[in-house]
Amino acid sequence: MRQRIIIAIDGYSSCGKSTLAKQLAKELHYIYADSGAMYRAVTLYFLRNSIQLTAKKQIKEALKDIHISFEFNVDAGKSHIFLNDENVELMIRDMLVSEKVSEVAAIKEIREFAVAQQKKIGQNKGIVMDGRDIGTTVFPHAELKIFMTADITVRVERRFKEMYAVNQNITIEEVRRNLEMRDYIDSNREVSPLRKAKDAIVMDNTSLTMAQQLKLALQWANEKILANNKTTIEKI
Fold this sequence. Notes:
Helices cover about 50% and strands about 15% of the residues. The protein has a single domain (about 5-230), classed as P-loop containing nucleotide triphosphate hydrolases (Rossmann fold, 3-Layer(aba) Sandwich). The protein is α/β, with parallel strands linked by helices. α1 packs across α9 (about 210-235), α4 packs parallel to α8 and α7 (about 150-165) packs across α8 (about 170-190). The mean pLDDT is about 90. It has a 5-stranded parallel β-sheet. It has a 3-stranded antiparallel β-sheet with strand order 3-4-5, with helices on one face. The longest helix has 26 residues, at about 210-235. The protein has helices at about 15-30, 35-50, 55-65, 95-105, 110-120, 135-140, 150-165, 170-190, 210-235, and strands spanning about 5-10, 30-35, 70-75, 80-85, 85, 125-130, 145-150, 200-205. The protein contains 9 helices and 8 strands.
């Protein structure tokens, strides 16, 4: 039986991290965990309950009342995120959440809350997780780390198409401003900033199709799995 590994995918907004992570998990029969969705769910809760981001005591109390889980949706053919037993998969994609999520995710207490849950999910390996600090903070010893990037214009176009499907009043200028703001906050926050792990492989998918990036990532994954199996056998 092949030993399973942990695959960590990091990178900028709208680089297709989640798409690749889902595809990889499906091909390898691994668990897919969307770390970004977890921060979005917390953001949604904070917005609904008017939690002030400068009130540490209020934040700590609020986190005690937040329960996040993933459940496989048969009709959609993918996992959906639940916030306190409510399916919020669509609501967390709203622009209001997008505008606040990087700010919320930069808060130390919230990152500690999310990272603790993420580490627990990965204890048995066989997992693909994407986010901003997966290869540097959550799974620093992951066997395969991929850092995704793409041209900003391409990223804006991708995000605009995604947002327009749920909000036809959105403009491409708003999407560009949102992405640039999130890039800045994610890269400059004090706690677990977005950065490439030293041992991560860079994937620039500006000109890659989804099929091409999956083929490349699967090649890297299988190489790591084979290397991991060889190391395990030598230790026996």
